[in-house]
Amino acid sequence: xxxxxxxxxxxxxxxxxxxxxxxxxxxxxxxxxxxxxxxxxxxxxxxxxxxxxxxxxxxxxxxxxxxxxxxxxxxxxxxxxxxxxxxxxxxxxxxxxxxxxxxxxxxxxxxxxxxxxxxxxxxxxxxxxxxxxxxxxxxxxxxxxxxxxxxxxxxxxxxxxxxxxxxxxxxxxxxxxxxxxxxxxxxxxxxxxxxxxxxxxxxxxxxxxxxxxxxxxxxxxxxxxxxxxxxxxxxxxxxxxxxxxxxxxxxxxxxxxxxxxxxxxxxxxxxxxxxxxxxxxxxxxxxxxxxxxxxxxxxxxxxxxxxxx
Amino acid sequence: xxxxxxxxxxxxxxxxxxxxxxxxxxxxxxxxxxxxxxxxxxxxxxxxxxxxxxxxxxxxxxxxxxxxxxxxxxxxxxxxxxxxxxxxxxxxxxxxxxxxxxxxxxxxxxxxxxxxxxxxxxxxxxxxxxxxxxxxxxxxxxxxxxxxxxxxxxxxxxxxxxxxxxxxxxxxxxxxxxxxxxxxxxxxxxxxxxxxxxxxxxxxxxxxxxxxxxxxxxxxxxxxxxxxxxxxxxxxxxxxxxxxxxxxxxxxxxxxxxxxxxxxxxxxxxxxxxxxxxxxxxxxxxxxxxxxxxxxxxxxxxxx
Amino acid sequence: xxxxxxxxxxxxxxxxxxxxxxxxxxxxxxxxxxxxxxxxxxxxxxxxxxxxxxxxxxxxxxxxxxxxxxxxxxxxxxxxxxxxxxxxxxxxxxxxxxxxxxxxxxxxxxxxxxxxxxxxxxxxxxxxxxxxxxxxxxxxxxxxxxxxxxxxxxxxxxxxxxxxxxxxxxxxxxxxxxxxxxxxxxxxxxxxxxxxxxxxxxxxxxxxxxxxxxxxxxxxxxxxxxxxxxxxxxxxxxxxxxxxxxxxxxxxxxxxxxxxxxxxxxxxxxxxxxxxxxxxxxxxxxxxxxxxxxx
Lengths: 309, 304, 295
Hints:
The complex is a heterotrimer of chains A (309), B (304) and C (295). By secondary structure, chain A is mainly α.
């Protein structure tokens, strides 16, 4: 078929050729995917713009943002964010420290140990864990966990129950499915040959897990942990209900503290747009956003390393 | 052909599922419209109706009252829509100032939150008088009354054990509102005389519900909550007198109980249309004489 | 050698114990929540109107949850599937693709409270809609779009390459192949994805506090089909408290002697809905897989 016949045929058909060249479907799906870039850009720009306002407003005592004193009504007012940043990190890190061994263990169980029937039970259960709304976790935390801590452990300092540990325990359960499912994917991505080779050398299953599987999937497991951290750091309502929201630097496991998200939920509705106090809350949102983006970059860097491995 | 057939049946299945859901919720509507008419009776007579839609945003403490009033008003005036939102006094004042809401509900005077230039743009409508009770966990015995001075010493952290105010030997646990809260600002102004609370030693909870939960479950805890919330939790909380005056609606109305303040509804400039009609309705008998006492508020004009 | 075997036994037992503990914890939570609500969960509670100072029901807020779910799906299902198609079929290594991937991951990790605040300014104030179902749905869409895109991408990638080659070999264009071969085969995965993300939407509260509002609705007239009338339950331009937000609200400022009962009942109901979505997703995907593989 010569080109001229083709041209003639397409002239006969007319519009399809034009449509084909336009490739509308391709443009549409690209636009849909590109809209996510737009959303992130807008959100970053918008939160950043509001977040830096306190530094642009004269007389807002913006320097105090880097202090540990949160005294918005004092004279001069002080908007130290350190208590909340530290609180967020403290609650998150402890939750991850408790949740990681459990989640990785659960993922190992699913990937290496579980018979088919057990996997068929545990996997849907994990999905239900994910699906339990955070307000429900908070409700359970305040009605069961907080009184339990106080009634059984007041001797070691849980005099009120609302505490760092309470917040971390609630988060531990909330991020368990996140870490588990991503770690599980990482274990499954390890080629079966590696296992077979190891087992053929006469090692036990546990030796294979420790010396072959875990090293080979380390980057993936770390990704799982970081994504769990991200979820923990951003959780608002469930944490706010059990940590007691004391706006000072954390003083101990048994004591109340405050996080970025909890302080935002407490104060945002009661402050007026444009005042330094409200601007400080936006700065907190910006910090939260930067933490999230930082974690994402970390994960990308890790995955980049994994691919080269 | 078979491929597109299976796509089709997939869609049918999803559609069937959503229909099922719709059918379930449709049931909600049926029973909703059947039972809805009962609450309208209170709004009979003397209601000026205007048509249109307004939004009232702000104080969560005032929300139950205004929400119910809005419901009654809409039942009486089918052409009007009054949306009542929480969000906090600050949100209410910001939103009414920016035009995002027609009415801003606030626990405190606009002058205490806004810049003077902004505050003068708003018109204050005091619709109710609300009171708060100092409450303690029932494990604390022997305390039934606090003077203003004792309360100040407790809240500023100078007194840390109930035995120092005549009660049983138990450490005091303060449950405090966030600093931005209107309730805390009112308490600070009326009782503490502006002194700074010992917030570094306190639990912070931001709503009547959360405060109640914390006080009733924590031995030695104390806080302040709205009258209505105290009334519904009387079994699990002990209410204290203030300077020997019992926290009752009557004592609040005649001014002898001091821990009380006006509930405000602000408009930007003078109200008109539905906003005006609804604000008038807030001050009318069905609200001031029936609904207000029912929620343990005091009417704003004792005479009316 | 013996010590190695003991270590293996101990490790295996530990892993079993962890799995068992997780299951027990989940079961305990579910039983506790449902048990607390046993006396409350009745037809009149699930379908009835909230009642001033009384127990009432959660019918309208339950309706709102489903309605917002529907609105969100209306936005995110087409957009998410399209984005997923791009990621699976068109994305070439390049700046655009890596920007999109980064955006996708970033949105998934942005705290929902921040999305809510963004929604307050962008969808509530700038648009002039006020607190509304639409503003809330847009905020929910922000989360759901990347999730939907990822699930679609996974489902599309799972379609065997042979099917693609067969289609291309028959002379179909790339788009024809996607439309008539790849997407239909991926439908079970996509549908499962839609239903599973529905659970997340259903339970979200923090992002809705400042966007969809905290009004407790009642007196819904379902015969009012005018979507521009703020009184119509079908209107996207009205405030819409969802079940999850309602739980939050009742706990914070709920009045009346039944507050705890309402919170318990609503929590259990929410949990049962999420359970229902999970079971539903599994059943539907099984049916679809069966039908498609048989066809």
